[in-house]
Amino acid sequence: MVDPWLALEIGVDPAERIAQVGAAHTAFLTGATPRRVREVVRRSWERSMSLDPESSPPVDLVDDTLERYRAGHPLAPVLPIFRDLLGGIAQDGAHLMAVCDTHGRLLWVEGHPGVLRRAEQMNFVPGARWDETHAGTNAPGTALAVDHSVQIFATEHFSRRVQRWTCAAAPIHDPATGRILGAVDITGGDHLATPQSLALVRATARAAEAFLAGLAQVEPDVVQVAALGRDEAQLRVGGRRIRLGRRHSELLVLLVDHPEGRTGEQLALDLYGEGRLHPVTLRAELSRLRRALGPELLDSRPYRLRCRVDADFRTVTDRLERGDPAGGIDAYSGSLLPGSEAPGVVRLRRLVDGQLRAAVLAAADPALLVSWTATPAGTDDLAAWEALARALPPGAPRRPLALARARQLAREYGVTRATSLQPRTQ
């Protein structure tokens, strides 16, 4: 059975295949249906059709901003693994090793100086955005889009500037959550279109995931809290997974938000509101929470957590504070305990959602706006849909949907907008 993720079948002449796919690419750009093109490539071309095939990807991160982002990225500890497994290839004078984040931004690009100089001509450099939205069909961007390892061969690339290259990439997942952290890629000449190169990036990605899983296991004193997009928080502590009830979830979130500690009265106000203090009930709830967490993790007088906590909602705000809205939207899986009516949780929920929304609107990045409008908090956000309609270029597949949704919401809200929904000119 033919592997659909491999670029060339055994025995196929590479030069002949380059000519066939090149002709199909030219025909596709004139509106014809491409023939004799792999399904994964055809679908990627369709997703890339709003791009200019002569364009180059933009560079999002440079200098200190890039260095800070790389240093704090979850894949930073895995860089020695990438170099051990792919370093020989990266220095042989014919290939490059690259690692990107979940949005296709290249974090590291390494290889022979001569190959690096050639790659710079197409902006294949650290900080550049190589997702399909900005670079069209390419191995790291397409691997992220379809969540599968893939080869992209020569003229299968959507951008003509990239069609002299062949690449293979595989996505890397967070072993705890299953979310995509990024992708690892090897790029070079036509000779990379072999089963061995695809197997190599697949194996490297699996090794990275195994390494990350090992890192999580050697930190039993760190409590991981997942409270976004769910009414009941989930904890990972000391190898255990604990699902808390709603009230205990609210208490935990409030304690995470106040690492300095809270008095019983402060917690009662945050939990029940003014005039509804229940000190006996609160003490009973805290006693049960201590039994669930373990007596060594929860202090009293004041009530505070005694351990280091990694909470998903804190990850969102931390990334936003570093000026990284893409990282914030990537870590956001929904509103904080959306079913909670506890005053302290409601305030914190509005703060997290509001900071993320403001950062996404300010960035005016179509990919970020698409992600935000897909969330429960963003699906009825008129300003976000209008911003998305303006950010998308004419002919983009998503633009008619954005225009229709913005106009629908404006009618529902009884709003007449004076601002134009035409795309912004550069």
Automatic annotation (TrEMBL):
List the GO molecular function terms.
DNA binding
Among its keywords, does the record have Protein biosynthesis? no
Q: Where is the OmpR/PhoB-type domain?
A: 239-305
Keywords attached to this Swiss-Prot or TrEMBL record, sorted alphabetically, are: DNA-binding, Transcription, Transcription regulation
Keyword Transcription regulation tagged: yes
Q: Name the SMART domains for this protein.
A: Trans_reg_C
Q: Name one GO biological process term.
A: phosphorelay signal transduction system
Q: Which domain of life is it from?
A: Bacteria
Show the InterPro entries listed in the entry: GAF, GAF-like_dom_sf, OmpR/PhoB-type_DNA-bd, WH-like_DNA-bd_sf
This protein's name: Transcriptional regulator
Give the species: Salinispora tropica (strain ATCC BAA-916 / DSM 44818 / JCM 13857 / NBRC 105044 / CNB-440)
